[in-house]
Design goal:
Order of helices and strands of chain A: HHHHEEHHHEHEHEEHEHEEEHHHEEHEH
Structural class of chain A: alpha/beta
Oligomer: homodimer
Radius of gyration of chain A: 30 Å
Largest interface: A-B, 133 and 131 residues
Number of domains of chain A: 3
Distance between the termini of chain A: 75 Å
Number of helices of chain A: 16
Shape of chain A: elongated
Mean pLDDT of chain A: 91
Strand order of the largest sheet of chain A: 3-10-9-8-7-4-5-6
Helix content of chain A: 40-55%
CATH architecture of the largest domain in chain A: 3-Layer(aba) Sandwich
Strand content of chain A: 5-15%
Chain lengths: 478, 478
């Protein structure tokens, strides 16, 4: 028995001999090879048999005793624990890998797992513009002040100065007047959707979602086990009448009215009013995802839907992912007063709160005016890139489709004449150009064929050659 | 009409006059006071009536036109939009504040909303030991290198170098051998529980939870809509036979075997084996929450349950919240291979990934050996504080109960003779001492009366006087 142990030890390998002996003896107890109640050799003797130092063996005995595999009986020596034989040599079947139904659904929503970079990844901001040095300075200052308040338990609804700063930001940038107490700081827009989906709807509840629509939202809503009702989008945005005829009783309605994802359509005023009327009729919430409405290039900014519902039927969701960096994982929701306390409690139970140090740094960044300046700089830069995209599409792609008009946002949709946008997207990818097919964002029976073109992360001078290559790829499809 | 607008403007207040006029005119359109199709005065004339600059009025007209409230018809002037009268003056009922059933459940789990500080808040580490300056240096270095990889889209399962660093850490600190690919980086232990609860079980599925048990876990499981089966805890940990007799078919089992929360009991080996056997029989997962098992003061560290289930039935959950700071919001789960891809996909849909900058800084902190040194320093400090607590309990509290033995963790439970621990806890709080009642962590019919005493955040010299005050408070209850 113990001789076999001696040969089982790997004296050259990286694993300490004490740990090896512990594992070997533990396995022998668990499998019954060391008989329950049997007395082990004294540590000195075993050390001799195994060719180990006595202290090593004593340490192993102590660990085995602490874990209950042996009992130290003082002068009577060390005894193998008297475990119930029925518990030994347990068959240990491979776990079947059981997921819940919602777990399977959650895992199954395709969402561009590869996360590529380069022209024209949608949704990606100009990461090289991230003010890293300034951010580091602000964070270091907070760390020097490092009060316990920034390290201890999170605040359910968010770091109060950040909630204040966000309220000021949405007032200045989006014309939304909201008390800081109604701001909920979330783990990005995605975290807000995941939380709201559960807070507002139960598994099986119907909810309206735009079709085509944002895959991230679809993932959150599917993950919450909801019954997604795809509602078609036309040139005025979500077709409210179609939604009513499909399901008049949604629990909530998810919309991107400023810059519909992925078509870029801005929802018309009559549609906005009809949407609110439908929501009133169903006593449904409306979740307005204003994911990149801050960037608007032609004319004055469009008022968020939120401003039409002062009594708070509309929950506004925003993010710093598009203007700073997706990996910051900070977003926010503007809640009606009745939802604030439940949402804050839910935040604690889900662990969703962003790190306080990040929240505090962002609060300083906003309060000291850096964000406004940063947004202004980015908007100028993005306007250049957008102009290059519009011009290049006219130059190289006019035989293959039309660019869909959109005044806001960091990506544009190009509608293809070719009905098979997935094949077109694959041809583009083969030529080194990322241009996801619009049809992959379709959930229902909406017919759409096109390509998403994100321009924010592509330098203006790289846009023309990339579009030329895209044009060649589309031509090669004939 | 327009004269009334002139008087409605607040010319002294902080809100710009243009924004005020926009709001006033918008409301007039929405409520039908400006008749659909009516022609507005020319901007120059309206500026005169209102006593505003013409540019201000032109800007307001442009915004109203962008939002669809008016139409600019060039030489024909500006016309109020012809909105369907049925959409105007909508009644806008107050939303009923509808929450989902799970939302109400999530909001209702009490969890010490106040989050107090001071002696003896359980679960709180020594925040003044947080290595803020070093952390800031490491983070600034990362920000200087600021690669797009740290700013762009998150990795579903975590930043790869951090997963590697965590695999090394659990090998060194807890004797767990696991491939980095099986490490999932989560938003604290709470984020791991919230994710796993949904991934592994559907609403209504039965799951075992320790009774008394950790309220944070209860919040996550209730929030996932699960059927919580409270299983009593005795001196050997969770009573597996009792669990089987209550519900033999849990979908998963939640346990804290190293240092049961809140009693501090370490689960015995026979119980561990019986637990795994019960899990095998039910094809159930086991979630091992090792929330503060890194801190062990007497004898060698206890092996995690995970090491008994090499085929991966046990999912191990750890956190950096107890050794660094809760507000960092970084934890991890060690997954069986079959769960890695679904969990990574689910992470993306829930927005749960910690900010990459935080992940990268933590990876450097671990890889460069700072965490090991920090843990060693903290363990020494906590051992002092723990000794002061044990001594003080003997000195001041021996008439009122007994300290429950526990070799690990950053809090101890004091069992009271008094059956009404909530009243005792209230008396303590009135004397300025936080000592939550054990009974508030009871979900089922387990009888327990005691106080939780967290010592990690209390300087040793403050412990004795705090316990004296606690003793006086208990005496005053008679």
């Amino acid at each position: 028995m113990f001789d076999a142990m001696a040969t089982a030890l790997d004296r050259e390998g990286p694993i300490p001999l004490g740990r090896q002996l512990y594992e070997v003896m533990r396995a022998a107890v668990l499998e019954g090879r060391l008989t329950p109640g049997m007395r082990l050799p004294a540590s000195r003797d075993l050390a001799g048999i195994l060719g180990l130092g006595r202290n090593t063996v004593v340490g192993v005995f102590e660990r085995l005793a602490a874990d209950g595999f042996v009992e130290a009986r003082g002068a009577a020596g060390t005894i193998v624990a008297r475990l119930d034989p029925a518990l030994l040599r347990r068959p240990a079947p491979e776990p079947a890998g059981r997921l819940s139904s919602r777990g399977r659904a959650l895992a199954a929503v395709a969402r561009g797992a590869a996360r590529p970079h380069g022209a024209f990844v949608p949704g990606l901001p100009a990461l090289d513009q991230f003010p890293g040095e300034l951010w580091g300075r602000l964070m270091a200052r907070r760390l020097r002040q490092s009060s316990a308040a920034l390290l201890g338990f999170e605040h359910g609804a968010g770091w109060p100065p950040l909630r204040e700063a966000i309220a000021r930001h949405v007032a200045a940038a989006r014309g939304i007047i909201v008390e800081p107490e109604r701001v909920l700081v979330t783990a990005g827009a995605q975290g807000a959707l995941d939380l709201l989906a559960r807070l507002l709807a139960d598994a099986g509840d119907p909810v309206w979602i735009e079709d085509p629509g944002y895959l991230g939202a679809r993932g959150a809503l599917v993950g919450a086990g909801l019954d997604l009702v795809p509602v078609p989008v036309d040139g005025e945005g979500l077709d409210v009448a179609a939604g009513i005829s499909r399901r008049p009783d949604p629990r909530f309605i998810y919309v991107t009215p400023s810059h519909q994802y992925p078509t870029g359509v801005a929802m018309s005023l009559p549609r906005r009013l009809a949407l609110l009327q439908a929501a009133d009729a169903a006593d449904a919430w409306v979740i307005e995802d204003d994911y990149d409405g801050e960037f608007r290039f032609d004319g004055p900014p469009l008022a968020p839907l939120h401003t039409l519902s002062p009594r708070g039927r509309v929950i506004y969701v925003g993010t710093f992912g598009k203007a700073l960096a997706p990996a910051l994982r900070v977003g926010y929701a503007l809640l009606p007063p009745t939802l604030v306390a439940p949402a804050a409690a839910a935040m604690r139970h889900t662990g969703h709160a962003p790190p306080l140090l990040v929240q505090a740094t962002l609060a300083d960044f906003l309060m000291e005016g850096h964000f406004t300046a940063h947004l202004r700089r980015l908007t100028t830069l993005y306007a250049e890139r957008r102009a290059a995209l519009v011009e290049g599409c006219g130059r190289y792609l006019s035989d293959y489709g039309t660019l869909m008009r959109a005044e806001a946002g960091i990506q544009l949709a190009f509608r293809l004449f070719d009905p098979d946008d997935k094949a077109a997207s694959a041809a583009a990818l083969a030529a080194g150009i990322v241009a996801p097919a619009l049809s992959r964002t379709v959930l229902g029976d909406t017919k759409v064929s096109g390509l998403q073109l994100g321009f924010a992360a592509v330098p203006a001078e790289a846009i023309d050659p990339a579009l030329r290559r895209l044009g060649e790829a589309l031509r090669s499809r004939g």
